[in-house]
Amino acid sequence: MNTQHVLLDVHLTDRDAEAALRADALAGLTATPKHLPPKWFYDARGSELFEQITALPEYYPTRTEAALLARSVDEIAAASGADTLVELGSGSSAKTRLLLDAFARAGTLRRYVPQDVSEAALRGALDVLAAEYPGLLLHGVVGDFTTDLDKLPRGERRMVAFLGGTIGNLLPTERHAFLTQLRSVLSPGEQLLLGTGLVVDESVVVPAYDDAAGVTAEFNRNVLHVLNRELDADFDVDAFAHRALWDADNEWIEMRLVAQRAMDVRVGELDLDVPFAVGEELRTEVSAKFRPLGVRSMLDAAGFDPVQMWTDPDERFALTLAAAR
């Protein structure tokens, strides 16, 4: 790694992650109905399964956003003029290369700031990017975008990219809190590039979360493996069935795990016994889809002025550039 051009700030340690998992599990498994945040899907196995999901014929969001981004990046770079690109939940920074190349063509970018919860993923991405973009300043931030936005390095002309439709995994109050917090750490004129899945027909969206090959079902159940390993739980993983359903009122997909028999689960690290009735459901993910007007209203309510929106030809995904007021 070229240390002259690469920095890494660590604001989230393994101990922090362990405490967060314990808190989320305790709150969610004792709630009615039971629920867990989707971020706990993504251990090494979960991340591998999700990569498989993105290649499935039913799962359109990733390839649709990637194609839309490829078509729109030069317009985005021209409209933005940012000298610092921040990416929340960057992972391997794969899609970001499209943005980095477009900003390089525009001649404005001097710094890239990827933020992710995984220090290992960030270090790997920074190593690769340092070789591919030798003139670019790289400043990684290990942190959680729901709690560590104030740890982002300051700048005068930053554009924050929040892609992948991840905003839809937050409930409405959480979305507003996140966007409001993000606005509070930006100066007027700094920007947000937001990726959102759009509302499509139920016959299209449900199979994307319930594929014929069963990869999403395995991905969904993987969160129970995480609890068994990290919290000394004894979930019978095979005793839970995957379910994906469309909530037309809230315009979101819910993924759930359904107990196929009555059981009591022991979570040793929490000294907790969790009863499940036959047919009882554990919600593991919400993935909201949006309408263009709703995206604009959501951003406006948090203190952003939408500048431009790009959508794919089938209107399944949107990229919105907005400026902080």
Beginning-to-end CA distance, first to last residue: 38 Å
State the strand order across the main sheet: 1-5-4-3-6-7-14-13
Helical element count? 9
Shape: globular
Provide the fold topology.
Blueprint: E1 6-10, H1 14-29, E2 34-35, H2 44-54, H3 61-80, E3 84-88, H4 96-106, E4 111-116, H5 119-132, E5 137-142, E6 158-162, H6 172-184, E7 191-197, H7 202-208, H8 215-231, E8 240-247, E9 252-259, E10 263-267, E11 272-276, E12 281-288, H9 292-301, E13 304-311, E14 317-324
Parallel strand pairs: 1-5, 2-12, 3-4, 3-6, 4-5, 6-7
Antiparallel strand pairs: 7-14, 8-9, 9-12, 10-11, 13-14
Helix pairs in contact: 2-8, 3-4
Could you characterize what this model shows?
With 325 residues, the chain is an alpha/beta fold. It is built from 9 helices and 14 strands. The strands form 3 sheets. Strands 1-5-4-3-6-7-14-13 form an 8-stranded mixed β-sheet, with helices on both faces. Strands 2-12-9-8 form a 4-stranded mixed β-sheet. Strands 10-11 form a two-stranded antiparallel sheet. Helix 2 runs antiparallel to helix 8 and helix 3 runs parallel beside helix 4. The longest helix has 20 residues. The chain is globular. The model has no long low-confidence stretch (mean pLDDT 95).
